[in-house]
Automatic annotation (TrEMBL):
Residues 444-471 are annotated as: Disordered. The gene is ddx49. Residues 210-374 form the Helicase C-terminal domain. It is found in: Nucleus, Nucleolus. This is RNA helicase. The keyword Aminoacyl-tRNA synthetase does not apply. It comes from Sander lucioperca (Pike-perch). PANTHER family: ATP-DEPENDENT RNA HELICASE RHLE-RELATED, RNA HELICASE. It catalyses: ATP + H2O = ADP + phosphate + H(+).
């Protein structure tokens, strides 16, 4: 097996890695670092927690040490939490080099950074509003969680990416990494212009072996009681475990956090309706184990590297296998063990089948003492209902509406015009629907009429035959 020196890293950088417990390269590092150091574009697809970040940070730091100047590298990533995590890796590994703080909020009074780590939205805004900021000389463009950046999910990055790509030099090295690259391979190849080196970890399964993947089949109404029971059991049995619970919506995230707190579990939340400052603060408290339970939406599903997380609970079954892979990948990282438990209702069974098909692994049932769950069922459901009422009085939904308006303003759109446009679209859609219904009804009527005519004809024929027979 290769070591970092033989892959082309300088002694000081190898030493720096050792100080961080990075002694031997992982397969994605062993395979992707040499072509990157040779100057090739690279696409790396390897499982969650397999060291993809260092696979691009190390060659960039190595190259930067050989020829340091201005903004050298741009890293784009879907969330600001991830941006900070990546910036930290650059800062720590590049410390002996005096690598200048990788920054996200660009402050033009400071010396230009060597590495900029940003979310596409923030950076595109900065580019649009500044005429002095230039990235025309960068050598590296890195898209971490590259497939997510190209997806048109609830946050669509494509417009911002276009703005950013237009400011970058054509001659650059492009590196693309994710645990789930394959769906967007074609689009990604267009961004990496110079016939990229593609490496994918060879494995039958798409999740790590160290992960024990379980499910609990439950009626919707009993889900929360199972959740409380599971957390009670885990916290009774383990002192040092942290748990992430993924929910479908911000509101659910908020409700569950408040509910678990009512049961005295040290719980904190992370979702997109929170202010960024609060998001960072909550994540820091969870990382420091001040709070052992994090309830989060999919903003926390990708990339976050928190070694103490032993359990991931999916409060809802993810609609896409890809989301499942990233969510459960928050545990069992870097060779550690971990458990994931997905709460499945009878309506989600087809989703589990599709997840199992993609990850090539069967989820196993998680054994639970149902009697114990039923004992707490009423108390849990009453608590949830009380919290929902409390939340309604704090105008959570109204805040959501205001946040949406703010987002539209930030995107340079007029919220009132957008609302009007949406209403018009809705009107057209409903007219179309009505029209379609009318046509279907008229076809139905026609068919019915034809059928009636046929029946009458048949009856007449029968009568005629009967009359002939008697005559
Ligand atoms: N060669 C190595 N030896 C030991 N630990 C390593 C090595 N390389 C990276 N690590 C550690 O492994 C952990 C996971 O790495 P990283 O966050 O880069 O995973 P990833 O592949 O990007 O996962 P994800 O797809 O979830 O983003 C980190 O804590 C990192 O410090």
């Amino acid at each position: 097996m290769a070591d970092f020196s033989s892959l082309g890293l300088s002694d000081w950088l190898v030493k720096q890695c050792k100080q961080l417990g990075i002694n031997k390269p992982t397969p994605v590092q062993e395979n992707c670092m040499p072509p990157i150091l040779e100057g090739r574009d690279c696409m790396g697809c390897a499982k969650t927690g397999s060291g993809k970040t260092a696979a691009f940070v190390l060659p960039v730091v190595q190259k930067l040490s050989e020829d340091p100047y201005g903004i050298f590298c741009l890293v784009l990533t879907p969330t600001r939490e991830l941006a900070y995590q990546i910036a930290e890796q650059f800062r720590v590994l590049g410390k002996p080099l005096g690598l200048r703080d990788c920054i996200i909020k660009l402050n033009e009074t400071r010396l230009p950074p060597h590495v900029v780590v940003a979310t596409p939205g923030r950076l595109a805004d900065h580019i649009r509003s500044s005429d002095t900021f230039s990235m025309s000389k960068i050598q590296f463009l890195i898209l971490d969680e590259a497939d997510r950046l190209l997806e048109q999910g609830c946050t669509d990055f494509t417009k911002d990416l276009e703005t950013i790509l237009a400011t970058l030099p054509a001659k650059r090295q492009t590196l693309l990494f994710s645990a789930t690259l394959t769906d967007t391979l074609h689009e990604l190849k267009n961004i990496a212009m110079n016939k990229p080196f593609f490496w994918e970890s060879k494995s039958e399964t798409r999740t790590v072996e160290e992960l024990d993947q379980r499910y609990i089949l439950t009626p919707e109404k009993v889900k929360d009681a199972y959740l409380v029971h599971l957390i009670q059991t885990f916290t009774d049995e383990h002192d040092d475990w942290s748990i992430i619970i993924f929910t479908n919506t911000c509101k659910d995230c908020q409700v569950l956090t408040m509910m678990l707190r009512e049961f005295n579990f040290p719980t904190i939340s992370l979702h997109s309706m929170m202010k960024q400052k609060q998001r960072f603060a909550n994540l820091a408290k969870f990382k420091a184990s001040v709070f052992k339970i994090l309830v989060a939406t999919d903003v926390a599903a990708r990339g976050l590297d928190i070694p103490t997380v032993q359990v991931v609970i999916n409060h809802n079954t993810p609609g896409l296998p890809k989301i499942y892979i990233h969510r459960v990948g928050r545990t069992a990282r870097a060779g550690r063990n971990g458990v994931s438990i997905t709460l499945v209702t009878q309506y989600d069974i087809h989703l589990v089948h599709s997840i199992e098909g993609q990850i090539q692994t069967k989820l196993k049932e998680y054994p639970v003492e149902e009697k114990e769950v039923l004992k707490i069922l009423t108390q849990v459901n009453v608590t949830r209902r009380e919290i929902e009422i409390k939340l309604e009085s704090t105008d959570f939904d109204e805040k959501k509406e205001i946040n949406k308006r703010k987002q539209l303003i930030l995107e340079g759109k007029d919220p009132d015009l957008e609302a009007k446009r949406k209403a018009e679209l809705e009107k057209i859609r409903s007219q179309k629907k009505k029209f379609k219904l009318k046509i279907q009804e008229s076809i139905q009527r026609q068919k019915h009429g034809q059928l009636k005519k046929k029946l009458i004809k048949r009856k007449q024929l029968k009568k005629k035959k009967a009359a002939q027979a008697t005559a």
